[in-house]
Design brief:
By secondary structure, the chain is mostly beta strands. It is built from 2 helices and 10 strands. It is elongated and about 55 Å long.
């Protein structure tokens, strides 16, 4: 099976033969090694030196130089807004206290759709509306640069309590 061993970031793409594309949700865009099947049927092995986050518009470089386009899939998210900048910062603090991936915009925050968190947000005076869009959460303070987000993509206990 042909392997994809490198990533060309969207801002570095200057050409090359794009032969297919993969449409991946946030969890599937954080990988090191896995078999993939592109939309057009091309099967290949993603085989990177370390786990990275693939971004919308990146390309995977196959061993023979061909490229496979990466597209971020639309996901069901909650779009969270607040009546003021202070109120939004307060909501961001409460969301962060739960250690869940969040994408922070200028006037909104997006998290995975969760009815319990939606009720928490509403109880704190914000709005939480379901939307369908690609999810691009923050990488975290210890991510170490582009594409190395930890992101809590796995279920595990932290050994401490969240109220």
């Amino acid at each position: 099976m042909i392997r994809a061993t490198r990533i060309l970031r969207a801002d570095a793409l200057t050409g090359g033969e794009i032969v297919d594309r993969v449409v991946l949700d946030h969890g599937d865009r954080h990988r090191r090694r896995t078999s993939m099947r592109a939309v057009g049927g091309l099967a290949f092995l993603l085989d990177l030196p370390r786990a990275v986050v693939l971004d919308d518009g990146d390309a995977l470089v196959l061993e023979d130089g061909r490229l496979v386009w990466v597209e971020a899939a639309a996901e069901r998210l909650l779009e969270i807004r607040a009546p003021s900048e202070h109120a939004l910062r307060r909501l961001i603090w409460h969301i962060g206290n739960r250690h869940i991936p969040a994408e922070i915009g200028a006037d909104a925050v997006w998290i995975a759709d969760d009815h319990v968190l939606a009720e928490m947000v509403r109880g704190l005076g914000g709005t939480a509306e379901p939307v369908e869009r690609p999810f691009r959460p923050e990488g975290g303070a210890y991510a170490g640069g582009h594409g190395q987000a930890h992101g809590h993509l796995h279920g595990h206990a932290h050994g401490h309590h969240h109220d």
